[in-house]
């Protein structure tokens, strides 16, 4: 038996099985439907109060991180400039991200200046 005959026989048996499945309604396919919550465009919902508290909490934590970043950056001018300057700069970016933009910017600026002075100027003294 050559390959073409074997292929034809296999194809015929496949089509025969498919026709039998259609007649018996014995399907082997898997179906699914996604269920999602309905979307509400109503802005006057009760969750706004809790969202405001979360936003206020993030803003307060941003100020705390901002002040600590500024303290680290100022301390880095006098003590361990590379370590404290890097920490102040990183915390400054975190503070800016959490809403304390001015404190974060000052922390980043002072921390970078301290890093530059600590790496390039201080080794000569």
TrEMBL record:
Residues 1-27 are annotated as: Disordered. InterPro entries: YqfX-like. Coiled coil: none annotated. The keyword Oxidoreductase does not apply. It comes from the Bacteria. Keywords: Membrane, Transmembrane, Transmembrane helix. The chain crosses the membrane at residues 69-95, 102-121. The keyword Transmembrane helix applies. This is DUF4190 domain-containing protein. The lineage of its organism: Bacteria, Bacillati, Bacillota, Bacilli, Bacillales.
């Amino acid at each position: 038996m050559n390959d073409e005959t074997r292929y034809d026989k296999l194809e015929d048996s496949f089509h025969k099985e498919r026709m039998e499945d259609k007649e018996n309604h014995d399907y082997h396919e898997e179906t699914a439907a996604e269920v999602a919550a309905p979307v509400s465009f109503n802005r006057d919902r009760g969750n706004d109060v809790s969202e405001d508290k979360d936003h206020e909490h993030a803003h307060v934590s941003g100020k705390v991180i901002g002040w600590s970043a500024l303290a680290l950056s100022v301390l880095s001018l006098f003590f361990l400039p590379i370590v404290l300057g890097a920490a102040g700069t990183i915390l400054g970016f975190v503070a800016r991200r959490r809403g304390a933009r001015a404190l974060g910017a000052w922390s980043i600026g002072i921390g970078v200046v301290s890093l530059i002075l600590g790496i390039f100027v201080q080794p000569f003294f």
